[in-house]
């Protein structure tokens, strides 16, 4: 009987230790996970670099762990991931927020636009805009410099005669082709922007190779200079500014106020 009790005691002790060990592991896993911020990005190089800068600042200067979810396609995919808590923070652009997320058409000063976005996103989504990175990356239309000079085209208005007679081949990437920017350009300039769809990675080369005459692009893209392309002037200011800044859920910022302090270094 004594032997049985002893064995039973040993068994109970062993089982208790095992259960306690699993509970301890779960506790630390939950604690570790709860102290982690997920940084996301779009699928363009610049956005991924900005996301890496955010991640590195948080990792090196705080005790917050960082998980990266980069290359998440475009604006809408990233924003849905932010709302659904798949990511906690990612770099966004003011113009994309106005047109793609809010589906509004506002053209005003940079200060007004950014204040409007801050107020609207906090009220509507409980999401905060942090201070801008200090630059913007606009959507643009571009073409070969030599062809633009030959046809005397330097702005969006100059395209009107050529789009009416269909003498220019226009191609946009899949995301831009369905964005509000195209609608805004059409309405502001009364342009017929019938276009083909082409992969984003081939946009500039297609213009350079004379396959396409006009395409969309990004104002900070080095390939514009590489291929000697001309950025056409948006002379009627149909498109808003595209100020780059981090977007973060308010609950995440409330939990980790150090993030705001660290990212202020990027102002």
UniProtKB/TrEMBL annotation:
The chain crosses the membrane at residues 7-28. The lineage of its organism: unclassified sequences, metagenomes, ecological metagenomes. One of its GO terms (molecular function) is transmembrane transporter activity. The keyword Membrane applies. Residues 36-266 form the ABC-type glycine betaine transport system substrate-binding domain. GO terms for cellular component: ATP-binding cassette (ABC) transporter complex. It holds the Pfam family OpuAC. This is ABC-type glycine betaine transport system substrate-binding domain-containing protein. InterPro entries: ABC_Gly_betaine_transp_sub-bd. Keywords: Membrane, Transmembrane, Transmembrane helix.
């Amino acid at each position: 009987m004594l032997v049985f009790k002893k064995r039973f005691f040993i068994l109970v002790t062993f089982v208790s230790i095992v259960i306690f060990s699993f509970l301890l592991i779960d506790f630390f896993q939950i604690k570790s996970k709860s102290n982690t911020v997920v940084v996301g990005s779009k699928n363009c190089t610049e956005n991924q670099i900005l996301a890496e800068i955010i991640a590195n600042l948080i990792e090196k200067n705080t005790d917050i762990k960082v998980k990266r979810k980069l290359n998440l396609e475009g604006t809408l995919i990233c924003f849905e991931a932010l709302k659904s808590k798949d990511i906690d923070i990612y770099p966004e652009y003011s113009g994309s927020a106005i047109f793609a997320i809010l589906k509004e058409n506002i053209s005003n000063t940079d200060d007004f636009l950014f204040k409007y976005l801050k107020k609207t996103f906090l009220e509507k989504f409980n999401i905060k805009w942090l201070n801008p990175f200090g630059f913007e990356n606009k959507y643009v239309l571009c073409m070969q410099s030599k062809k633009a000079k030959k046809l005397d085209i330097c702005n969006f208005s100059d395209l009107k005669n050529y789009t009416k007679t269909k003498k220019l081949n226009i191609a946009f990437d899949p995301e831009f082709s369905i964005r509000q920017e195209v609608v805004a350009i059409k309405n502001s300039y009364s342009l017929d922007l019938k276009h083909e769809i082409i992969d984003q990675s081939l946009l500039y080369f297609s213009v350079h190779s004379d396959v396409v005459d006009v395409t969309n692009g990004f104002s900070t893209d080095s390939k514009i200079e590489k291929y000697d392309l001309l950025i056409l002037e948006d002379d009627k200011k149909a498109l808003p500014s595209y100020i780059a800044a981090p977007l973060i859920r308010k609950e995440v910022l409330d939990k980790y106020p150090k993030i705001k302090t660290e990212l202020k270094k990027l102002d």
